């Protein structure tokens, strides 16, 4: 039947998916390697957000209450991970490390600890120069214009694990039907090489999947965790990938398929089982699993029916066909190109109670400091011309000489946004209205924040005094009563300065600063351009109490980290809570559910 037509599989690409093992714990371990052999966990609020494998061996797990972890493993070493900037920095460093190997620049981050890389061009090039009569002694060239950089490998063998285990070995070298297997074998070797480099040079181990598209690569990696890699191979070379992909996909619970979020999975389960189903939050899963096979093979399921079943407000057009394709392991989405700068930088914190002006000013100052620091980390780059031009400049008196001299802005965000989430006042009957809305106010970002001559502290204070207090008053004209559960500060609307020619900048320090002033002229504050928006957040099942705020705070630290993640992630990154309907990153769903549970005594 036409509506059940199997979407065409476009093989020919080789995609590698990296997932760093125990990421937050690994960030500490990279600095202090002695932690690796000890049970070690990272704490945010009252939970262990992650722990290393030694701790997992001793019975600890992700998202466990600190109390329970200490009881189970009294000698566990715990570090505080409230300050997520260290994870963000590590994530960026590792991303750049991986990106430097790429020829095409198609390297995409998902969250802090996952990266896809499209290695098709590297694999194709190396297949082009391979000696098919001596595949055992091959050399993989890692740098296109330097045949000496790379590694030796056996192109008849797979590096790491293969799925399925009885994959087709292929009819032998030189046979066209075996090209796909050859591609994937090379993909597995380049993945192994990069995984080793990541470990040797940066101290991080990772779990890697290699396949012909993003979804398959992400899924197949899970088969050998941690420190493992798996390549999805054809089980029958004549059929290509068809049979192995179908049996691989069919075995998965539908909620595990990236791109099928919590809500969609739940609707599919209910359709297949023809009744309401329950979700078990403690296990981050369902006690009523429905497999891909059950959905795919159901006689009434086709893409038009899926469109009707799944389309809703906010869902992308063509969701039915997209899900139908995913059920068949078909995913044509591209690995996006690496971007030099994030689309936005946002910093936020949440509060059990924030209702006095002195407290607010203190928090705004702290957020503004983080924001400016973050801008300097993410948006400044070395001016390579500076070192050589330094001697040419006899104007050594040009000030200031700080460690930031020689840096230039890669982009200037144009807009400053302040967002709050006010708690509603109690109603006469003592109840609290359920809606928790975020409200925000935007205005042009004042120029002075780009000045490198001033300290972050001074700039932050000025930003609070000159802009943020006024913006806050626009959001909260009522002087007498407000109580905030969240404050978010963001710079958005990036204007990249990539067109700067090298010769135009950094000739000497004076010129550079003069030029910077010129650039900044474009960023005048224009009061009329300000804008206030109210973003309704779907109603929350209950308000935050001091006790249950704990986990929520932990989640939100990650939920809205910065533009690198917010806007680059695929649908898989977000699920919707069935109680409050909030969008929650998939990995944080379990912790989020604790927020809805009765307060822990
Ligand atoms: P893995 O991949 O099983 O070896 O372990 P991780 O620690 O890499 O876990 P993963 O990949 O699920 O998440 C990456 C990091 O994100 C993790 O190290 C800590 C953080 N994270 C994960 N889930 C949550 C959560 O529910 N709340 C918060 N605040 N952070 C989380
Ligand atoms: Mg991980």
TrEMBL record:
Q: Which Pfam families match?
A: IMS
Q: Which residues form the UmuC domain?
A: 15-261
Return one GO MF term: DNA-directed DNA polymerase activity
Q: Sorted alphabetically, which InterPro entries does this protein's record hold?
A: DNA/RNA_pol_sf, DNA_pol_Y-fam_lit_finger_sf, Rev_trsase/Diguanyl_cyclase, UmuC
* Highest rank taxon of the organism: Eukaryota
Q: Which GO terms describe its biological process?
A: DNA repair; error-free translesion synthesis
Q: What PANTHER family would the database entry show?
A: DNA POLYMERASE IOTA (PTHR46404)
Recorded protein name is: UmuC domain-containing protein
